[in-house]
Write a structure and sequence with these properties.
The protein is mainly alpha-helical and 119 residues long. It has one domain (2-106). Helix content is 76%, strand content 0%. It contains five helices and no strands. Helix 1 packs across helix 2 (27-43). The chain is elongated.
Length: 119
């Protein structure tokens, strides 16, 4: 049930975006487009982040529901911008954590440097 509620919630974003873009589709139509889009992305699992697949799917599916190719592509790019907004800060944080580990390992003296030297 929670998955279904999240799916419905995730459909609100493109539905509102299409309203603002002047292409008001019904919520049910947007839900169908989003469902078929995720099915298409699942089929294209071998392509990293479904680059190009999502855009093409939006254009093809949008045409079936009366969206112009420009509007469908704009909607796809809006979803990509959301992915970048979430993904880039997480990627930067991960790199900071890993670089900190590297610097600590480089700065730590090795075991041979820790032994006292005999005279």
């Amino acid at each position: 049930m929670l998955h279904f509620v999240c799916w419905i919630g995730g459909t609100l974003e493109p539905w509102i975006a299409l309203r603002f873009a002047g292409a008001p589709l019904g919520f049910a139509a947007v839900l169908v487009i989003e469902s078929l889009l995720y099915a298409t992305r699942s089929v294209a699992f071998a392509i990293p982040n479904a680059v190009g697949v999502q855009e093409g799917a939006y254009i093809l599916l949008g045409a079936g529901f009366g969206l112009t190719p420009e509007t469908a592509l704009a909607l796809s790019l809006l979803k990509r911008a959301r992915d970048l907004t979430i993904g880039l800060p997480v990627l930067a944080a991960w790199q900071l954590v890993e670089s900190g580990r590297l610097w600590r390992r480089v700065a730590a003296p090795s075991a041979s440097e820790m032994r006292p030297r005999s005279r």
